[in-house]
């Protein structure tokens, strides 16, 4: 038993948890990996939050630096960040399809986005500050706590789904608070249906707060959404 314990500890030291992610392959994929590698178990240590004061320049997918800082405004006391408490829910909110939203909804959504963009640029709730959250966490702005040479990788890891679910949750809550509607829900893009295979029209109105001039015009109608987009345009159409 002593010898086996010693061997297991040696194996554990050699096992990099980042190489044993329970991803889209599911439980069986992880089990097969363990079986093939002849390992007694795999580690599931959670990735701790980064040191917020250690934010550095972020990188684009090609490795070049982001031409602006994505670092977020810091709270006054980093040692005393309160734990978020979920609010009481009195009504279930339903996210509408972006292709079927009403004029009333578009007005409400546009107003919320405009108010968010109009907040002080240093306000953590400001539109760009919220965008910077994704930039900093998903474009190597932070390093893993305790591993200064290892970028915190939200994409291509087990953090992808929980991070983005919370990200959208808080984005939605901010918008609702700005228009005094705690039942506000973001639209979803049903791009798997035939009618939803083009960019929703509410994002293609030039004078709307929902419009972004930086969007690639090749992705606008009549072109359909390229679900396999890898920076190469296929110019697919109906």
From TrEMBL:
<keyword id="KW-0809">Transit peptide</keyword>
<keyword id="KW-1133">Transmembrane helix</keyword>
<dbReference type="InterPro" id="IPR008922">
    <property type="entry name" value="Di-copper_centre_dom_sf"/>
</dbReference>
<dbReference type="Pfam" id="PF00264">
    <property type="entry name" value="Tyrosinase"/>
</dbReference>
<dbReference type="InterPro" id="IPR002227">
    <property type="entry name" value="Tyrosinase_Cu-bd"/>
</dbReference>
<dbReference type="GO" id="GO:0046872">
    <property type="term" value="F:metal ion binding"/>
</dbReference>
<feature type="domain" description="Tyrosinase copper-binding">
    <location>
        <begin position="155"/>
        <end position="172"/>
    </location>
</feature>
<keyword id="KW-0793">Thylakoid</keyword>
<protein>
    <recommendedName>
        <fullName>catechol oxidase</fullName>
        <ecNumber>1.10.3.1</ecNumber>
    </recommendedName>
</protein>
<dbReference type="GO" id="GO:0009543">
    <property type="term" value="C:chloroplast thylakoid lumen"/>
</dbReference>
<keyword id="KW-0479">Metal-binding</keyword>
<dbReference type="InterPro" id="IPR050316">
    <property type="entry name" value="Tyrosinase/Hemocyanin"/>
</dbReference>
<dbReference type="GO" id="GO:0004097">
    <property type="term" value="F:catechol oxidase activity"/>
</dbReference>
<comment type="function">
    <text>Catalyzes the oxidation of mono- and o-diphenols to o-diquinones.</text>
</comment>
<keyword id="KW-0812">Transmembrane</keyword>
<feature type="transmembrane region" description="Helical">
    <location>
        <begin position="20"/>
        <end position="37"/>
    </location>
</feature>
<keyword id="KW-0472">Membrane</keyword>
């Amino acid at each position: 038993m002593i010898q086996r314990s010693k061997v297991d500890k040696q194996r554990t030291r050699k096992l990099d948890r980042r190489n044993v992610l329970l991803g889209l392959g599911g439980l069986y994929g992880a089990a097969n990996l363990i079986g093939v590698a002849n390992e007694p178990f795999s580690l599931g240590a959670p990735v701790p939050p980064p040191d917020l004061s250690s934010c550095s320049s972020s990188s684009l997918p090609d490795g070049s630096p982001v031409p602006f800082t994505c670092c977020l405004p810091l709270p006054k006391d980093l040692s005393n960040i309160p734990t978020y408490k979920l609010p009481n829910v009195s009504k279930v909110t339903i996210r509408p399809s972006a292709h079927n939203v009403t004029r009333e909804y578009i007005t409400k959504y546009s107003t919320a986005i405009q108010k968010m963009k109009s907040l002080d640029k240093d306000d953590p709730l400001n539109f760009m500050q919220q965008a910077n959250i994704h930039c900093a966490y998903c474009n190597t702005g932070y390093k893993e706590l305790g591993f200064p040479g290892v970028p915190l990788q939200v994409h291509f890891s087990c953090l992808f789904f929980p991070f983005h679910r919370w990200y959208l949750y808080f984005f939605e809550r901010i918008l609702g608070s700005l228009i005094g509607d705690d039942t506000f829900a973001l639209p979803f893009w049903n791009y798997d249906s035939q009618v939803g295979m083009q960019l929703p029209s509410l994002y293609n109105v030039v004078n709307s707060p929902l419009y972004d001039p930086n969007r690639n015009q090749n992705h606008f109608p009549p072109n359909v959404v390229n679900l396999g987009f890898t920076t190469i345009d296929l110019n697919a159409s109906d």
